[in-house]
Design brief:
This is A-type ATP synthase subunit I. GO terms for molecular function: ATPase binding; hydrolase activity; proton-transporting ATPase activity, rotational mechanism. This protein is of the alpha+beta class and 685 residues long. It folds into four domains: 164 residues, no CATH class; 83 residues, Alpha-Beta Plaits; 185 residues, no CATH class; 128 residues, no CATH class. It has 24 helices and twelve strands. The strands form three sheets. Strands 1, 2, 8, 9 and 10 form a five-stranded antiparallel β-sheet that branches. Strands 5-6-4-7 form a four-stranded antiparallel β-sheet. Helix 3 runs antiparallel to helix 9. It is globular, with a radius of gyration of 34 Å. The two termini are 31 Å apart.
Length: 685
């Protein structure tokens, strides 16, 4: 779970007569990761399979577009049987079998693309017409007049604009109408034929833009806007109908996808196979736990007529090795977040298990409202689950974490609902003056403004503790990765001294969990050379040791290797400078946890305050206030939820992963035909 699996690199040689059976058997079992052909072995690759692989990959990509059209995540079905004579002939036969399904979805996709393109075109036209949308005159017809030149300009209104335009137009014997409207202005100009080119540059110089009537809509801007609104409604309905039709044949589409994916995997195997006379040779990787199983499959398919050459058991090394990551089912969805940064290298810790804890926790601290957390949870279950089950799971966990942090903050859809549920009284009965993670707005709402500094200070402590923990833990994981990789030079030169430096500076925040106490220790350590405090002296000693170690390790290692120590000194100086820069930048970066939590509670409090002000004037005012409260909460939850997710991800990718995680690995992707039984020469696998 914390490290990729150990793999065995093998070369297989089997008789040509049994090779299709071997391919089918390995594909069904899904335990063999095929790689490039072995170096130094003579033979040739059947190039026809490259073309077939390209065709299968393109088909799979197109089918995924069809699933996207229906608004669901691509999926395969089980129990599909594929009968194989020759691989190429069978592939083309199954393409023909599902040609009607493909034609149906291809037509829908083309129709959807056309409607979507037209909708985007109308939105662009709408944006161009918007400044003059109140004008109810056929401007397009006036533009095409043969008797005079006509143009419409628009922009911001300013005092004296009308006189200036009139002066410019009068010089050529023309007329101008200036119509201010809500801070903007529309200027219509009519001048003798051929005179527009003389006055237009001057008018444009007044910070105005010229309006060009768009084609394909009525010439009157007002009528054009009405037409666009009608067309948008019609196109929206058309797009919805297409998506509905795409959902009607998902079963057939999933079966088609299952078959094409199976052939794509088979062809990926075949293009990496060397042909040498009557022997077929392929190189790849297998999990050491499946080595005996691999040999059993080969023995069964070839009746013992095979050769398997083991090139070694390894996790990484000089030979590029894929990474096989085994995770419990409840952690697998979080690997999608990790893979946004990169796939784990075979010789480094897989951070998924840690991220599954720290990401929801960080998000929840930024988004402390049980009601808004519930909205995230419901959004994941009822909408996102149809699009991506993995992301739905991740967001559901994050929403659940926010429900907990919201209860700890005493917030459920802001103060109004919290009071209705009796949440403040609950914490009082538990003997607490305020909820454990209450924001300053809680104190303001309860008339205890004197507690505001205390609550801000509490949020500050939480943010700095999280930052100190993640930074020190990240550099520690960097040390562990150095040991796993046996990168002894890197350990001595940078990883160990960096951990010592980070651990020394961040330890006061972890030990005291109080920004004031930690700041006092750091002040004594850095400004008073330790002062009278033992803790400050330890911080100073650790920091200086880390920096001196970092500066001297490089030159010493370079000198031991027979190189100039000056080159090592330059490298060490840059390493020390980068580490100090990280310290100065990374720790304050975690203050965004406090900033987003305060912003979230403040926005909800503003909605609450406005609602209370409005709900003072009878039933109608109560209805308006209730609508404002509901709408405001939805808006804040949506906006702040996106911001909290973005910033929580940033803290992990840039502040944390940069300390230990490279993400440069290649995934272990064994040839696998999910849900498919392959039938060859009367035998089913």
């Amino acid at each position: 779970m914390l490290l990729p699996r150990t793999l065995e690199e093998v070369v297989l040689a089997v008789p040509a007569r049994d090779y299709d059976r071997v391919v089918a058997g390995l594909a069904v079992e899904g335990i063999f990761h095929v790689d490039t052909p072995p170096q130094g072995v003579k033979g040739e690759v059947d190039r026809s399979y490259r073309s077939l692989l390209t065709q299968a990959s393109e088909r799979s990509s197109r089918i995924r577009q069809y699933f996207e059209l229906a608004g669901v995540e691509p999926y395969r079905v089980s129990g599909v049987e594929v009968e194989v004579g020759g691989w190429e002939e069978s592939f083309r036969r199954y393409l023909e079998k599902y040609s009607e399904v493909e034609k149906f979805y291809s037509g829908l996709l083309e129709e959807y693309s056309e409607a979507e393109s037209r909708l985007k075109e109308l939105l662009d036209i709408e944006a161009r017409i918007s400044p003059v949308s109140h004008v109810d005159a056929d401007i397009a017809r006036l533009y095409s007049s043969r008797a005079f030149d006509f143009a419409v300009y628009y922009g911001s209104y300013w005092e004296g604009l009308e006189a200036r335009v009139g002066e410019i137009v009068s010089r050529v014997g023309g007329l101008a109408v200036v119509e201010p409207s809500g801070g903007y202005v529309v200027v219509a100009v009519a001048v003798p034929k051929g005179a527009l080119s003389k006055v237009s540059p001057e008018i444009l110089g007044l910070n105005l833009s010229i309006y060009t009537p768009p084609e394909g809509v009525p010439g009157s801007p007002k009528k054009a806007m009405e037409y666009i609104r009608e067309e948008k409604g019609r196109l929206g309905g058309r797009l919805a109908r297409i998506q509905e039709m795409a959902s009607e044949r998902l079963g057939e589409l999933a079966e088609f996808y299952t078959v094409v994916s199976a052939f794509e995997n088979i062809f990926r195997f075949l293009v990496s196979t060397l042909r040498r006379g009557e022997t077929r040779i392929v190189r790849g990787f297998v999990d050491v736990r499946d080595s005996r199983r691999l040999r059993g499959i080969l023995d069964k398919m070839t009746r013992g007529s095979y050769v398997i050459l083991s090139l070694g058991v390894r996790r990484g090394g000089e030979t590029p090795t894929p990474s096989k990551v085994d995770l419990p089912q409840f952690l697998k969805p979080f690997s999608r977040v990790v893979e946004l940064y990169g796939y784990p290298d075979p010789n480094e810790i897989v951070p998924t298990a840690f991220l599954a804890v720290t990401l929801p926790l960080t998000f929840a601290l930024m988004f402390p409202d049980a009601g808004h957390g519930l909205l995230v949870l419901l959004f994941s279950i009822f909408y996102l689950r149809r699009v991506s089950r993995d992301w739905a799971y991740v967001l559901a966990v994050m929403g659940g974490a926010s429900i907990v942090s919201g209860l700890l903050a005493g917030e459920v859809f802001g103060p109004l609902v919290s009071k209705m549920l009796g949440l403040p009284e609950l914490w009082l009965r538990l003997g607490l003056e305020t909820p454990p993670y209450a924001m300053p707005t809680y104190a303001i709402d309860h008339g205890e403004e004197e507690l505001v500094p205390t609550l801000v200070y509490r949020a500050l402590n939480v943010s700095l503790f999280m930052g100190a923990f993640m930074l020190s833990f990240g550099t520690l994981l960097g040390v562990v990765n150095g040991v796993i990789k046996r990168d002894w030079a890197g350990l001595v030169e940078s990883r160990l001294p960096r951990f010592l430096l980070f651990a020394s500076i961040t330890s006061p925040f972890l030990v005291y969990m109080d920004a004031g106490e930690a700041g006092s220790v750091l002040r004594q350590a850095l400004l008073e050379l330790g002062g009278d405090s033992l803790a400050a002296k330890l911080v100073l000693a650790g920091s200086l040791l880390g920096l001196v170690w970092m500066l001297l390790a490089g030159p010493i290692l370079y000198m031991l290797e027979g190189h100039s120590p000056l080159a090592g000194l330059a490298n060490s100086f840059l390493e020390a400078y980068e580490s100090l820069l990280m310290l100065v930048g990374n720790i304050p970066s975690f203050l965004r946890i406090m900033a987003l939590a305060l912003a979230h509670s403040s926005l909800v409090f503003v909605v609450y305050y406005l609602t209370v002000m409005i709900m003072q004037g009878g039933i109608l005012a109560d209805v308006v206030g209730a609508l404002l409260y509901v709408g405001g909460n939805l808006a804040v939850a949506g906006m702040e939820g996106l911001l909290a997710f973005a910033h929580a991800s940033r803290l992990h990718f840039y502040e944390w992963f940069s300390k230990f995680y490279s993400g440069t690995g290649v995934p272990y992707t064994p040839i696998r035909v999910e849900g498919v039984r392959i039938k060859i020469a009367g035998q089913t696998f």
